[in-house]
Amino acid sequence: MSMRSYFGNSASLALCMLFLSACEVGPDYRRPKIDMPDLDTKEEISQFVSEKWWDVFQDATLNHLEELALKRNADLRQAVANIDEARAAAGVASSNFLPALGAKGEGGKSYASTRGKSYVPGLSSKRSAVDYLGTATASYELDFFGKYRRANEAARAILLSTRAAKETVLLAVTADVARAYFLLRSLDAKLAIAQRTLKTRQESRQVYKSRFLNGYCTEFDYLRIESDMLSVNTTVINLEAELAKAETSMSMLIGASPREMINRVTAKDKAIEKLKVPSQAPTGIPSDILARRPDILQAEAQLIAANAKIGEARAAHFPSISLTGIFGFESSSLTNLFSAGSDMWSFGGGVNLPIFSGGKISSLEDAAKAEYKKMLIAYEKSIQTAFKETLDALVSNRKNREIVVSRTSQVNALKKSYHIALKQKESGLIGLLDLLDVERGLLSAEMELVEALQNQLNATVDLCKALGGGWQISQIRRRINKKYHKMRHS
């Protein structure tokens, strides 16, 4: 048989076996059935028209902080590195579909001992030998039972999972930056209120100190004024401490260096009461909520990978079939290495069949099945979490708006009450204690209004996050969804 006909028959056999390898063991992925409610498909979601959902607050400083976080946040950079690692792993898995090719060249001279077993007097004419060898090698393992296809499926799903995980981290980081910024604005507003009140109390203290020293008021009145002043002063100190901690938290989120962290003071753009809150927001859960949430996409990708690993583990029960081939030239003279007659080749195949492994292969398959169950529970929980967070955010968004309206009315009423009480005190109609009660009530109400404004802003952030990043799905998430769809139907 000629070398050409031998290789031709071998190639035909290989193609036939490759065709037969279309079968693969293990379950094909099917999306689990979830008991879903009837969701609103006509929900108005036009408020957020930008991928950068934080633009709705229309604050230049917040926009700048978010951009810094997107570039420098450590968690985001780590998530990108995870994607690179998963992409490399997917490349390793896909390489198993291709044959391994190699080349080798050797040359050397040997000199045999006349007393060694390799030297036979009368038959071994020469004690010395020279040999040169150049070969090309090829090896390929037929994926007859789909072991490598399942491994590749799992690797691709893990890659998609890391991309969705990066989207999850991005959403969490940008939400944390917004909350941290609103905290800074809230603390600034509270500190301004406390400092203004402290200045008024210090002025009152000076007045009553003079009156007390001149016998025009009791020591009780003077001490009461001084006590209230010191209480407000303590509030100012506490707020300054909280503001300093909030600054370092923001520095961490935007990836500031230690030097920047020490010297950093967040710029002020708008007071908290001037920050825009979207007037229009969804009142129900959109029907595509499962496609919007990157954490759900991440959980399903992990479920797809776990399902594929069951097939990969099951394939270990079956034999592996490998093909190898060598072609090259061999000669005792380097000048004749490529001459006629110096060519050499070999071709072969092998089968490796597991017979007894002490239960190792079955245990690995059981572990893969247990991993799938674990990922299934995680997937179901991610959906439960999505609905809980969305429902909570919808209620919080609505109720916090109502609270702001109520707190604003309360502050306006107390301001009028304070001005009336001040005039009555000057006219001698009420005493000092009555005026102090009104002042304390106004201070408390103003602080609570600031907190209500902060909670209203945070509720909008929570709603954006619960819906997967505002009212729209990002282009990256759309691409991930398309790949999920392709994987489930491939």
Strand content: 5-15%
**What topology, given as strand order, has the largest sheet?**
1-2-3-4
Stretches where pLDDT falls below 50 for ≥5 residues? 1-21, 42-49
* Largest sheet composition: 4 strands, antiparallel
Q: What's the total number of strands?
A: 4
Give the CATH superfamily. Answer: Outer membrane efflux proteins (OEP)
Return Rg in Å. Answer: 38 Å
The CATH class label is Mainly Alpha
CATH topology: Outer membrane efflux proteins (OEP)
Structure annotation, total helices: 11
Assign the CATH architecture.
Answer: Up-down Bundle
Helix content: 55-70%
Distance N to C terminus: 42 Å
**Overall outline:** elongated
Average pLDDT score: 82
Order of helices and strands: HHHEEHHHHHEEHHH
Number of domains: 1
Structural class: alpha+beta
Give an overview of the whole structure.
The N terminus is likely disordered. The chain has one domain: Outer membrane efflux proteins (OEP) (Up-down Bundle), CATH 1.20.1600.10. It is built from eleven helices and four strands, in the order αααββαααααββααα. With 490 residues, it is α+β, with helices and mostly antiparallel strands. It has a four-stranded antiparallel β-sheet, covered by helices on one side. Helix 2 crosses helix 4 and helix 3 packs antiparallel against helix 4. The radius of gyration is 38 Å and the shape is elongated.
